[in-house]
From TrEMBL:
Domain of life, source organism: Bacteria
Sequence ranges assigned to domain Uracil-DNA glycosylase-like in this UniProt record: 15-176
Keyword Transcription regulation recorded: no
Key word Nucleotidyltransferase present: no
Pfam families, sorted: UDG
Protein name (Swiss-Prot/TrEMBL): Mismatch-specific DNA-glycosylase
Lineage, broadest ranks: Bacteria, Bacillati, Actinomycetota, Actinomycetes, Kitasatosporales
Keywords of the record: DNA damage, DNA repair, Hydrolase
Length: 187
C-alpha cells in the first residue's frame, strides 16, 4: 500500500463479520487505515489479533485477514466500537466512543452472541462509562450476552506479549464453551 492509498482510506467503513447467535463477537476499537484500505479487520502486519486467536485455540490455524469470513464457521465474528477508520485510535473522541457503545449495544441485542469481547480496555471504559474496568470478564451484560475485555492486540501495546495475550484469549475461549464441549476445527 502506498501512503496515498492509506490516506484515502481515512473514514471508510469495514463491513462487520457477523451472524446471529455467535459464540464470541470480537469488537475492535475502530479500523485502522490498512484495514479500511483492504476491507479486512486487523489487517496491519504488526497487529497480533490473528496470531493470538490461533495461539489461544479459537482457530485450528492462523488465519490471514483476507480469510476473516472463515470466523463464522467457528462461531466467531468481528465488529468495532467505532465504525470509521483512522490512522490512530486517539483520533476518536470520547463522544464517538460513547455513541459507538450505544450502537454496539443495539447490534449485540439484535445478534445475541454468547460473549462480546472488546479488544481494548480504554475503548471499553470510554464506550460504556466503566472507568474502573479491568481486563477479563465484566459484571455488565447486554441482555444475555456476557462481556469480556481483552488486551488490545496492536503491536503498539507493549504491556502484553503475544503469549500473555493468548493466555487471556484462552480464558475467554474456555468460558465460551458449554460444559464438556470443545471447539472443534471447522466449527
Amino acid at each position: 500500500m502506498t501512503p496515498e492509498e492509506l490516506l484515502a482510506a481515512r473514514d471508510r467503513l469495514v463491513p462487520d463479520v457477523v451472524a446471529g447467535g455467535l459464540r464470541v463477537l470480537f469488537c475492535g476499537i475502530n479500523p485502522g487505515l490498512m484495514s479500511a484500505a483492504t476491507g479486512h479487520h486487523f489487517a496491519r502486519p504488526g497487529n497480533r489479533f490473528w496470531p493470538v486467536l490461533h495461539l489461544s485455540g479459537f482457530t485450528p490455524r492462523q488465519l490471514r485477514p483476507a480469510e476473516q469470513d472463515e470466523l463464522l464457521s467457528y462461531g466467531l465474528g468481528i465488529t468495532n466500537v467505532v465504525a470509521r477508520a483512522s490512522a490512530r485510535a486517539d483520533e476518536i473522541s470520547d463522544e464517538e466512543f460513547r455513541e459507538g457503545g450505544r450502537v454496539l449495544t443495539e447490534k449485540v441485542e439484535l445478534l445475541r452472541p454468547r460473549w462480546l469481547a472488546v479488544v481494548g480496555i480504554t475503548a471499553y471504559r470510554t464506550a460504556f462509562g466503566e472507568r474502573k474496568a479491568t481486563v477479563g470478564p465484566q459484571e455488565r451484560t447486554i441482555g444475555a450476552t456476557q462481556i469480556w475485555v481483552l488486551p488490545n492486540p496492536s503491536g503498539l501495546n507493549a504491556h502484553w506479549t503475544a503469549q500473555t495475550m493468548a493466555e487471556e484469549f484462552a480464558r475467554l475461549r474456555a468460558a465460551s464453551l458449554d460444559e464438556g464441549e470443545d471447539l472443534p476445527a471447522g466449527r
